[in-house]
Write a structure and sequence with these properties.
Elements (H helix, E strand, L loop, with lengths): L1 E5 L10 H4 L7 E9 L5 E4 L4 E4 L10 E7 L1 H10 L7 E12 L5 H9 L1 E8 L33
Parallel strand pairs: 1-7
Antiparallel strand pairs: 1-5, 2-5, 2-6, 3-4, 6-7
GO cellular component, one term: cytosol
Pfam family, one: GGACT
Function: Catalyzes the formation of 5-oxo-L-proline from L-gamma-glutamyl-L-epsilon-lysine.
Length: about 160
């Protein structure tokens, strides 16, 4: 199992969460909530109002999200879903555990108790330069105050 940190439309209550609970795509087990140890710019960009974490460590905010354990099938699905490696790149990032529900081996429990885990995160280093000038968010909600409604894939 691999650990994945999601910060956008794949979180609970967001438009693409349905994929995280679709066992036909693989297994994803919610482990807890966290935030990036380093600051990153989280922007909402493009004509479909997609959330992107720009891979610019040290700029922006500690981005909030959810930690999942996923099997190889789900990881492969997420790579395809996220357009990896063209649109997003899957990289390891340090995630601070805010609230832990995960149950697992002693190594997992110990890592959670220490408060920091390494998780795969879909961020991007391939973005138009003007995105750096967009507003930065510390948390994403598709129906947030930003007024930038996410456009579902089936509606594009």
């Amino acid at each position: 199992m691999a650990r994945v940190f999601v910060y956008g439309t794949l979180k609970k209550g967001q438009p693409n969460y349905k994929y995280m609970i679709n066992t036909a795509k693989g297994l994803a087990k919610f482990q807890g909530r966290g935030r990036t140890v380093e600051k990153y710019p989280l922007v909402i960009a493009g004509k479909y109002n997609i959330p992107y974490m720009l891979n610019i460590p040290g700029t922006g905010h500690h981005v909030a999200g959810e930690i999942y354990s996923v099997d190889d099938q789900m990881l492969q699905f997420l790579d395809e879903f996220e357009g990896c490696p063209d649109m997003y790149q899957r990289t390891l990032m340090r995630i601070e555990v805010v609230e832990w529900e995960g149950k697992g081996g002693t190594g997992e429990v110990r890592a959670a108790a220490e408060g920091v885990l390494e998780c795969f995160v879909y961020s991007t280093a391939t973005y138009p330069p003007e995105w750096v000038g967009l507003p930065y968010y510390d948390s994403y909600d598709s129906s947030g105050k930003h007024g930038l409604s996410y456009v579902l894939r089936e509606s594009r």
